[in-house]
Specification:
about 325 residues, alpha/beta, seven-stranded parallel β-sheet, five-stranded mixed β-sheet, 16 strands, globular
């Protein structure tokens, strides 16, 4: 099977490429803007006609689109996340290759959801920011294209390669700095946010499964379990060996990293043991989201996937637990000590 992978050098694309290269039945061609792509092509500025000519020459059976932008203004997000997908869809319609399209969407397309609920694919999307709007527009283009296509709405990907600017990446970096400086306390904000964290390698497995399946429409890719960011912080402290105190500035009291880690290890998702009073406040805190510092996906305080469609139509389930994902994030941060 010949596969054309768009965005092979991105956070998700790198792992998708590794997964596909491990399949001896796959002949992989990577298209992107970087010098290390097999073919250089900018989806945001290239013409559908030029891409059509390439598709007719390569004749892939599957096109996987992992390309896009997560940051920037509305204009840039629209160009990289929406116009680029319009180019892909138009080129596939014009081409005689008949390739199947696997498009990577995101949970930000749904926007905020009711705490305690699981978001299924038939939920009405209400994105809370320009990123989610640009990705939702891309999904609508794919669904309205009459192509053999599936959109994987990926919830909160984590694991090796997690961007340093993401909430968990920033948390690991803040913990690294605290340990390097011998600081026994770490001031944090916004740890009450809950997200469905799914390992990037499990996402790659889902993309591989979708490329081989006949599934169409939208399929959620997550774990089906929301985790509070403060619980993720506790697990990260444990795997890092950080025994200091985590001061959560927008909570009633701070808590010990050791005690919090024990709570998380025992499966608790509720309150942490308060062991220290309010922090002094001389040092600027790490703002990770929530409260007055919103989590950057525009999805409010809660998001959890309903993943039954992925199980039933792709035969896919997540395999890697959050502790392993966080350990890999920490290993990369620790290498900078």
């Amino acid at each position: 099977m010949r596969v054309l992978l768009l965005g092979a050098n991105g956070y998700l694309g790198r792992f998708v490429a590794d997964r596909l290269l491990a399949d001896p039945a796959v002949q992989l061609t990577a298209l992107g803007r970087g010098d290390d792509a097999d073919v250089r092509f900018d989806l945001a500025t290239g013409s559908p006609g030029a891409l059509t000519r390439f598709l007719d020459a390569v004749h892939p059976g599957v096109v996987i689109n992992c390309a896009g932008a997560t940051r920037g203004g509305a204009r840039d997000l629209t160009r990289h996340n929406t116009i680029a997908v319009a180019t892909v869809c138009e080129a596939l319609r014009r081409s005689g290759c008949g390739a199947r399209l696997v498009q990577l969407g995101c949970a930000a397309e749904y926007g905020p959801s009711q705490p305690g609920s699981s978001t299924a694919e038939d939920a009405v999307p209400r994105p809370g920011g320009p990123y989610g709007v640009s990705k939702l527009a891309a999904t609508e283009l794919v669904l309205g294209s009459d192509l053999d296509a599936v959109v994987l709405r990926v919830f909160s990907p984590v694991g090796p390669g997690t961007p340093a600017g993401s909430p968990l990446g920033r948390l690991a970096e803040a913990m690294r700095r605290a340990m390097q400086a011998g600081d026994g306390e770490l001031k944090l904000s916004g740890l009450g946010v809950q997200r469905d964290f799914v390992d990037v390698r499990d996402v790659a497995r889902a993309v591989h499964a979708a490329s081989l399946s006949a599934a169409q429409g939208v399929v959620n890719i997550g774990t089906g379990r929301a985790v509070r960011l403060r619980d993720a912080a506790a697990v990260l402290a444990r795997v890092a060996g950080y025994a200091g105190t985590l001061h959560e500035l927008d909570a009633p009291a701070a808590y010990s990293a050791g005690s919090a880690a024990a709570t998380a290890r025992n499966g608790g998702a509720g309150s942490m043991l308060a062991t220290v009073g309010a922090p002094r406040g001389e040092t600027p805190p790490e703002h990770l989201g929530g409260g007055p510092f919103p989590y950057p996906d525009g999805c409010g305080s809660w998001q959890q996937a309903d993943v039954r469609t992925a199980r039933d139509r792709l035969g896919w389930r997540p395999r890697i637990n959050l502790e392993e994902s966080l350990a890999d994030i920490w290993m990369e941060a620790a290498c900078r000590i």
